[in-house]
Amino acid sequence: MQNLRIKLVQAAKIGLILSCFSIWISGQAQRSDRLALAHFEKRIEDGKLADVENDLLRYVIANPKDSLGFALMAKLRLKQGRPTEAKSLSLKALTFEPGLLSAKLSLAAAHFQLGETQESRAVLDGVSWNQRSRDSLGLDLAQMYVLVGDCPKALEIAEKLPLKLRNSEALPLRATCYLGSGDKKNFDTVMVQAKSLSAQNLNVAVRFAEVLSKVARHQEAVDLLRLVVAAWPRDIGALLLLAKSEIFLRDFAKAKIHLEQVEKIEPASPQLFFVKGVLESEQGNYTGSLGLVERFLSENPNNTEALLQFVITAMRANQAGKAVRAAEKLIALEPDDLEFVYFYGAASLQNNDLQNAENALGKVLAARPNDARACLAMGLTLSAQPDRLREARGQFGKCLEINPNHFEAAYQLGVSYKGQGDSAKAIEYLELAVKLSPNYASALRDLGAVYLQTGAELKARPVLEKAAALNPNDPDTHFQLSRLYNLIGEPELAKKHLKIFQELSKAKNGSME
Fold it and tell me: b/e string for 98-116 if b means 16 or more Cβ within 10 A?
């Protein structure tokens, strides 16, 4: 009996040991899983998406109920531009762990990328975050609130972040909000902080410069990026962003130097082709620009910044069909982006597709009635239809109400009345256009032409000669000058400008053929 009791005690001890061993093994496995997930997340954050994809996928298959695995997979899909899959994966993670903050943030981001802004906001408003949550998730939450347009909420969350994070990783989003609200004092403070970080935190400094670039504060972006490049001379992201800002400041020489530096470091960089394309476009080489941007898009077909650049350059190159197709792709990617809708309308107008132009521009104006660009484009759309001339004039009048300095709207009104033979009204609006934009060559030319029609040769001469000096390759200006000089008795000058007119017209017709 005693032997049996001893055996039972020994068995119990062995069972307890085995149980403790199993708990230890389980704990070690969980620790191993968490380390693996942390490693996957780091690789995603570093942009090593292709490297991590297969390993993470195998992990999720092996751990089909691990909510964190599905949440990370959703984050990866977002980075890859696959929001529909990210949405599904986030929802899967939330079925296992309904309160998982990382999954909720991925779900909100997926909704946003799919154009479902209200749904994105609803998810964010259902998030529970406080200082006990991971600081990085608090930062992600604040950034999502910036995206959905709620800067007060974003700043409220940012203020709760630890001081070190608030004055480093959170600087770009704080700058975005301060710029948006016109808070110069706070913006100046974070600008100083960003400059002080330029040599210590490359990522924050570059993201801060991107914020400046997006709101066309190119000089400030250049000032910051030159500090960054001095500290990190081989970082191609900083070099390319610096070159792009210099291009928009028309400092082409310095931009070329920085592009040459990138070419030495990474000659096959697709982003290099894109920035070179921007440079060519700003220098007037539209055909060369289109080729470079197309090269970038061949590897990044859904990059909206490059597609928009392609639309703008194609319109400048009078390749309206290409512009329309690129704009259609932009709208397919982000149907609620009114900027893309505007460019689709403008490209359709240039392509003489007046119905699509009117529909798109009408949508923009319904949401943004004071958009002066869309107002002008709508006026041009209407004026291209002879039976809607009165509507067109009314539209151009609205543009001048929106912006009394809108010289293009004044010019279009002048041209409209000139075409109808109403010289008094034509002169009124063309003189206004020239007053608002003294170097507007087309307005000067047409004003001079109307002066000639009304017998005001003395008024016509200075404006036509100025028009020719500003735009010497415009055939019609030389034709009007030939008329003028004949009328005032200067036949040699009249012959000279008639000859220039004929040569330019021949060259123009030849290039069109």
Answer: eebbbbbbbbbbbbbbbeb
For the stretch 349-361, pLDDT in tens is 999 999 999 999 9
From CA 314, how far away is CA 184, in angstroms rounded? 37
What is the value of pTM for the model shown?
Answer: 0.76
Domain residue ranges of the chain, discontinuous segments joined by +: 43-128, 271-368, 399-513
**Beta carbons of 281 and 244 less than 8 angstroms apart:** no
Q: What is the CATH number of domain 271-368?
A: 1.25.40.10
For 399-513, which CATH class? Answer: mainly alpha
pLDDT, tens only, 64-90:
888 888 888 888 888 888 889 989 999
Q: What is the DSSP string of 146-192?
A: HHTT-HHHHHHHHHTS-HHHHTTTTHHHHHHHHHHHT-HHHHHHHHH
Structure tokens at 167: 């004055």
| Tokens standing for residue 126 | 């259902």
pLDDT in tens, 395-407: 999 999 999 999 9
Task: Give the whole-angstrom CA distance, residue 153 versus residue 221.
Answer: 26
Q: Do domains 271-368 and 399-513 have the same CATH topology?
A: yes
Phi-psi group of 318: left, alpha or beta (phi > 0 → left; psi -120 to 50 → alpha; rest → beta)? left
Residues in the chain with pLDDT values less than 70: 1-34, 129-133, 509-513
Specify the CATH architecture of the domain 43-128: Alpha Horseshoe (1.25)
